Amino acid sequence: MTLLSQRSRNASAEFALVEDFFLRSSSGEARNAEEACDFSFGNPHEMPLAGLVEALARNLQPQNPQWFAYKISEPEPRAFIAKALSSELGLDFEPEDIALTHGAFAAIALAFCLVLDAGDEVIIPVPGWFCYASMLRAADLVPVKVGLSEPDFDLDLEAIDAAITPRTRMVVVNSPHNPTGRVYSQEQLQALADLLDSASNRIGARIWLLSDEPYRRIRFNHTPFVSPAALYPWTLIDYSYGKVLLAPGQRLGYLAISPRLPAEQRAELQGATFSVQMSMGWTFPSALMQYSVASLENVSIDLDALATKRDLMLHSLEQWGYQMVHPEGTFYLWGEAPGGDALRFIETLAARSVFVLPGTLFERRRHFRISLTANIEMIERALPIFRDAIG
């Protein structure tokens, strides 16, 4: 007999491998050692960006008695984001299209809550972010895992179409993609939009698209980015500032409604976000983060330095025989473990204080993920260990 709800048990089962790795694996404490080379999660390993610190310090000083009062999605940051996003994506967002959230986590949860009902099916990419499935289970929704096409990890449109059933109500697309770094082309996304439109007509119900875009501004070599919101009206966008600021502990994000959504449905969603966010447990960002939105617009990790780290690791690993995907965005590298056994590979590295994520957390036993948020000193110390690990 258990006291836990069925949805809690389902969510825990989906997240078990990640929880075990994060909390109970032998590498957990070792990753924090001074000599460790930690390439596991997208955490900072250098001091915070000066622009971030300055923005927070400037807005920390109260300007009136209500400075730290309850804050919902405040008018000024909503208007600022709507204007900036319109310029960035070439779409006409209104302030009412923007729901400020406690990071992209909350934006994704808000999207699920706004348009989905218990038992609805949501197609998610595999490999992909390891929280989609557990979040869906916690909301009494059904994750349907569809593999990306290998070896390039593009969208597999035939597989997506085959996975659609009368209960399908959403497809999640993550571009730039975690963990592979792929950025999907306009042609791929237009084909997906056409597929979803046709499938919606076939099943007699609208299929939504959630465009998960927290790495949108982290792209290499001027790789173009197109949001599905420009191609498929029934799109919701989630975004997080934590990636480009490399400050995931300072929670700031938003959910945006595609301006191409028909006016009646757009107004209905705009009118529902406040009450749903309240009902979900106050998922608005803190007052300090909302005050800082405008100041943070042009603050970013050094993309040139990030590209230098990417190129150094790619060149080194490939010359030693590793099979790697060349990322067009994000701060990750994705590759095949020597011998095809990721768990054995990460144990070999961990024995010499180098830590990466096994592909098993992404449902791929042969692969591993490296986070380039490690500093250059870590990379230089780790490269000889990667060389030795391939035998």
Automatic annotation (TrEMBL):
Residues 42-382 form the Aminotransferase class I/classII large domain. Its EC number is 2.6.1.-. Keywords: Aminotransferase, Transferase. The gene is aspC_3. GO terms for molecular function: pyridoxal phosphate binding; transaminase activity. SUPFAM superfamilies: PLP-dependent transferases. PROSITE patterns: AA_TRANSFER_CLASS_1 (PS00105). This is Aminotransferase. InterPro entries: Aminotransferase_I/II_large, NHTrfase_class1_PyrdxlP-BS, PyrdxlP-dep_Trfase, PyrdxlP-dep_Trfase_major. It is an enzyme of class 2 (transferase). The keyword Transport does not apply. It comes from Halomonas lysinitropha. Pfam families: Aminotran_1_2 (PF00155). Belongs to the class-I pyridoxal-phosphate-dependent aminotransferase family. Its cofactor is pyridoxal 5'-phosphate.
